[in-house]
Amino acid sequence: MSKLTDVPKRILIGRALRSDRLGETLLPKRIALPVFASDPLSSVAYAPGEVLLVLSIAGVSAYHFSPWIAVAVVVLMFTVVASYRQNVHAYPSGGGDYEVANTNLGPRAGLTVASALLVDYVLTVAVSISSGVENLGSAIPFVVEHKVFSAIAVIVLLTVMNLRGVRESGKLFAIPTYVFVAGVFIMIAWGAFQTLVLGDTMKAPTADFEIKPEHQGLAGFALVFLLLRAFSSGCAALTGVEAISNGVPAFRKPKSRNAATTLALMGGLAVTMFCGIIALAMASGVKMAEQPATDLIRDGQAVGADYVQNPVISQVAAAVFGQGTFFFVVLAAATALVLFLAANTAYNGFPLLGSILAQDRYLPRQLHTRGDRLAFSNGIVLLAGAAMLLVGIYEADSTKLIQLYIVGVFVSFTLSQTGMVRHWNRHLRTERDPAVRRRMVRSRAINAFGATFTGLVLVVVLATKFTHGAWVALLGMVMFYGVMSAIRKHYDRVAAEISAPDEPGDETARPSRVHSIVLVSKVHRPTLRAVGYAKLMRSDKLEALSVNVDPAETKALRAEWERRGINVPLKILDSPYREITRPVIEYVKSIRRENPRDAVSVIIPEYVVGHWYEHLLHNQSALRLKGRLLFTPGVMVTSVPYQLQSSEAAKRRAKKRSEWNAPGAVRRGPVDQRHHHKERAQQGAKD
Amino acid sequence: MSKLTDVPKRILIGRALRSDRLGETLLPKRIALPVFASDPLSSVAYAPGEVLLVLSIAGVSAYHFSPWIAVAVVVLMFTVVASYRQNVHAYPSGGGDYEVANTNLGPRAGLTVASALLVDYVLTVAVSISSGVENLGSAIPFVVEHKVFSAIAVIVLLTVMNLRGVRESGKLFAIPTYVFVAGVFIMIAWGAFQTLVLGDTMKAPTADFEIKPEHQGLAGFALVFLLLRAFSSGCAALTGVEAISNGVPAFRKPKSRNAATTLALMGGLAVTMFCGIIALAMASGVKMAEQPATDLIRDGQAVGADYVQNPVISQVAAAVFGQGTFFFVVLAAATALVLFLAANTAYNGFPLLGSILAQDRYLPRQLHTRGDRLAFSNGIVLLAGAAMLLVGIYEADSTKLIQLYIVGVFVSFTLSQTGMVRHWNRHLRTERDPAVRRRMVRSRAINAFGATFTGLVLVVVLATKFTHGAWVALLGMVMFYGVMSAIRKHYDRVAAEISAPDEPGDETARPSRVHSIVLVSKVHRPTLRAVGYAKLMRSDKLEALSVNVDPAETKALRAEWERRGINVPLKILDSPYREITRPVIEYVKSIRRENPRDAVSVIIPEYVVGHWYEHLLHNQSALRLKGRLLFTPGVMVTSVPYQLQSSEAAKRRAKKRSEWNAPGAVRRGPVDQRHHHKERAQQGAKD
Fold it and tell me: Do B2-488 and B510-658 show the same overall fold?
């Protein structure tokens, strides 16, 4: 099977790299940009539309406010980009918002950011895929007619790809992202040329529609509130900006500077595209309504429930290139693909954050291990399940989902920037070099402004979106926070319980002698091997033990034992009720009762088989006995495996599993570098 | 929780017996009769109705054949009872049909009987509960209006009771069974008195109905076929007769004679009740139709789909006692209760047969252990699932389910009786005492007649019922047969693979030295205990091993190791990709490569926690590592458990599990006796 799927995989994403060569795959800026920017750049596919949607509530006249809202979004984008450029320089380890908040504001702030980010990853998948389906649907109507089904199909596809460990490559991201960016720029340029130079009037498919305002003639506070809500929606364009700050180690040297440059480049591209699309939408007369079925009027009549409201970007493309033309279809496909790639970044980020949280004991420790397929699988399945749930509940409607989206982003923006202010404060306390101090003060000012601005936006988002769905995101955050606190508490309690006492001579750890028992049911190779191994261990006392559940079998066992002259005494326990576990446990306890300082070593021969159904047929008594023995103090339990021929299949499967590639490797950069940087950063933080 | 449920349990079924006192609970005949006869006696609640149903196809005039069919059923019942009295004497071990067929006709016949019995148990549950719900419904219409739901609710209730291990007691069976038997006899006597002495005309609720025959004026072969089909349906009265032959060890001494007497008593009661109910049905003018909705005519009109056709026994009770009277309700309740008890016997028989089959390696070996809750649970859940499936598919319609029922019974009757003929033949070859020989020849004649008669009935049942549903039962048997053969084949293959070679000096079993490795992640109590135990084992080489997934932690570990002066060398493995399993496996392999005759002992400290969710938080790396190590040749894996405080809860749960009572204990009799008898029987068979 592997052979068959390898060929298309290689064609798609290039020859897989051996993991020890991972260190060589550092990203040049031209590849880093698409790798990290697919999420923020793709948001321009839905953010402009959301602004128009909200404004339409006050009627089409409110569309005139859209340039001002665009300006506000641009200012915010510049603020956030400038702030994160400071993060990138201060935390070249790729710490990310969680680490920044955790280090500078304490564990509660860190956990809050982590909860916000986890919710955010789920929403990135749900929103990006829903929007991708809507964009694809403007070219292929079938997709949008079966919207929920299509969205879930894409989630399943991404999940399977990531579970199988398809190794990403920079190229996979580069081609659609550059096609998308180029397409949007060509569209903007060609639209501007047509309007300004040729003087043509572009007409969007909805140019002749009218909008029935839900609230005619809004003014005063109500209008301000509506504009703030439109601004909140436009802030969707900022989602994903923080991704680069996690990925500094993946950049070529000078890492921090390259990352900062890429960040600036990304911000510049995003705002240009955002503003360009809004401008074209205004010029071509795009009409969008929150309730299109009743509020969009065509020829004096509401368009009705059958009407599909296409995304702004596709309406603009229809106006500029013409509906269904080659350019139109290419742009729609590239838009959808970039949105799906954006969703894929959450598949990388979610388990990565999980592994960092596991390191801090907020999540099960085994998630910490990098490249551990099982750990990643759990994260991926959890993410996909939650995203599918949301897609199902909100019927893959990106507009509804976006109401939930922005809270988490701005929680982490605000806390991260506040943390950065503290970071500079701490460093300024010790730093004496005036040039460095000047730079730090400047950075602190930028971060302080960023924290204030994003904090304000958070308040605005909460105020305007809470009843529209933001409460769901908050609830999700509270749940993550609660579970992670509980896990941490459990680990702390266990750590206190098992911490080694300082004075030596702890009785429980130092029994005086070992009494070994080999469990025997028949004389066969596994038994002989277990007896052989047990003899090698030279314990103080060694005996073989069998439970008499069938007198005839026991008699045969005893005869065979003597015939072979096995020089280990064979003890038979009676079991009138044909139990195995209880007599053994009682015997072990009786040994401990007689010699409380003895340790008992129970040695169990085990078959190793290859298939799960074979497992059902073997070792069940042994497994249950082992389970019970673990609760008996002063006992150690040894399995002596005997590999049956069929176990080869299972061995191959296990090996294949261990060669699995964890997703997100490219974005994360090589591990040793990461570790190196992190240690430096931690040392820096401790200064 | 245990405390709360114990009180009603004690009230219901008496104080639970300690299992070592089980030997004292031998059954007197007056208790043995209800314990074993609830299944065959309860069948008179549906068998007479099935006869009338089939006859109604030829119109109400065909009802006149019903006494002849009753006679045929009575003759068959006497034959079967007489035959099984021979089994009871020949196999006082309670061998049952499987053992008789297996011993005398070979493993294929045995497996066929076993498959038939397993299918039969499933159908006993489905049929008895469906019929019980119908009977209860004649008093409480709600139940029959929600028939499938009620039937499934009863199955769930029985399943939960049996999973929890409610200990049956003879009294539990005695009261409803005797109430039922007494009720039916009072009904027959009172009905006869009314009709014969008082000269009243009893009228069943359906007395004035007419039946539209599906085939008017059947004659010749078609009529014979219909009568045979009616006879086949009447044979449902024989299901469960073989139960006593499994339960001889549970009787008081003289066991075999008491069992034989009980068997005769049961046969006598069953045929009297069967004939009495048919006679009352004739006298009171009961009308039943296979398709009541269209074929039952009331006042010239079909009764329609809303009509609920009550069972014969309840229609007769309505005629004799009057609908809704005290006696009517008591009889309906007792009938339903006896039918539910009959279903419960399958819950005991199914896992018991499973444990015997497991002993012969047709089912996973762990099912063999008596009183093993897990093994019984699997059997109970399988049984309940299959029965629920059938109830769902056949809409809890006892008439439809009975079409499937009788095949299995007669397969095992026929093979068992044929086996008995062989049994006597073999004994006659060596027996010299003329008195004993005479008895044996008589027994052989009875069994030969029984085999011929039941074989004929089997052919009749197959011919008349195959297309009506018997094929489903056959398919079920084939499936059980196939799975059990495959399991046996697997065990045989493994046994051949692991059988110990006769010449000593097998290299694989005798490594020369042991290299022990204690896995260490931190210095805490579990680690210290593991190191302490490892030292006691005095292996040839001992070292502690840690995987460096985090340089800072590793540094701290090394410092602590030195500070404490632990005199075991600490080896650190590098793991640039933060894996744990792979470096350890490779290291173990490298040891084996350098010294192929060394065995490697890997010692893993483990926490023992109390709750499943705590399990998720601990030992996962250890578990996975153990899983992989089992596939590595020349390795033994030792767990050194460290019991955390929370493990107490799990220990209590495990202890409670081990004190669980397996269902069916009363019917089976005490084990040691059983074993004793069985050995004698086997020795007898070997003579």
Answer: no
What DSSP assignment string belongs to A654-671? HHHHHTPPPTTHHHH--H
Q: Which residues contact A572 (CB under 8 A, 6 or more apart)?
A: A545, A546, A547, A548, A554, A558
> Given this model, what pLDDT does residue B4 score?
39
Write phi, then psi, for B519 (nearest 5 degrees).
-80, 135
Crossing angle between the packed helical segments B29-42 and B170-192, to the nearest 10 degrees: 60
Report the alpha-carbon distance of residue A648 to residue B308 in Å, rounded: 61
CA distance B101 to A487: 58
Beta bridge partners of B210: B297
So what CATH class is A513-644? alpha beta
Strand pairing partners for A544?
A: A518, A570
CA distances from B378 to A207, A617, B350, B381, B409 (A): 68, 13, 10, 5, 24
Identify residue A253 by its one-letter amino acid code: K
Evaluate whether the domain defined by B2-488 bears CATH number 3.40.50.300: no
| Alpha-carbon span B196 to A325, nearest angstrom | 98
> Phi and psi (nearest 5°) for B301?
-125, 145
DSSP codes of every residue in A39-56: HHHHGGGTHHHHHHHHHG
Task: Report the complex ipTM.
Answer: 0.70
> What kind of fold does domain A43-490 have according to CATH?
Amino acid/polyamine transporter I (1.20.1740)
pLDDT digits (tens, 9 = 90+) for A115-162: 999 999 999 999 999 999 999 988 888 888 888 999 999 999 988 888
CB atoms within 10 A of CB B64: 10
**Which CATH architecture group holds B510-658?**
3-Layer(aba) Sandwich (3.40)
Touching check for B272 and chain A: CB below 8 Å? no
Cα–Cα distance for residue pair A298/A289, rounded to 1 Å: 13
Tokens representing A394 are: 């909100």
Distance from C-alpha of A539 to C-alpha of A544, rounded to nearest angstrom: 13
* A607 neighbourhood in chain B, CB within 8 Å: 494, 498
A276, amino acid identity: G
Size of chain A in residues? 687
- How close is the nearest chain A Cα to the Cα of B169, in Å? 19
Query: Residue A670: what are its φ and ψ, rounded to 5°?
Result: -65, 150
Q: In the sheet where B513-519 sits, what is the strand order?
A: A570-574, A541-548, A513-519, A598-608, A635-643, B635-643, B598-608, B513-519, B541-548, B570-574
Mean pLDDT of chain A: 83
Give the phi and the psi of residue B637 in degrees, each rounded to 5. -120, 120
Place of tokens 């590098």: B574
Cβ atoms within 10 Å of A613's Cβ, excluding its own: 12
Residue-by-residue DSSP string for A391-420? HHHTTT-HHHHHHHHHHHHHHHHHHHHHHH
pLDDT (average), residues B373-391: 83
Instruction: Give the pLDDT confidence score for residue A178 in this predicted structure.
Output: 92
**Which chain B residues are closer than 8 Å to A674 by Cβ?**
none
pLDDT at A12 over 60: no
Confirm or reject contact between A527 and chain B (CB < 8 A). Answer: yes
Whether chain A has a CB inside 8 Å of the CB on B659: the answer is no
pTM of the entire predicted model: 0.69
Question: Where in chain A are the domains?
Answer: 43-490, 513-644
Q: Is B528 on the interface with A (CB under 8 A)?
A: yes
Residue of A nearest to B639 (CA): A637
Of B276, B270, B338, B292, give the one whose Cα is nearest residue B131. Answer: B338
A144 backbone φψ class: left, alpha, beta (φ>0; ψ -120 to 50): alpha
A541-590 confidence digits (pLDDT tens):
899 999 987 788 899 999 999 988 888 999 999 887 667 888 898 899 99
B373 confidence band (pLDDT: 50, 70, 90): low
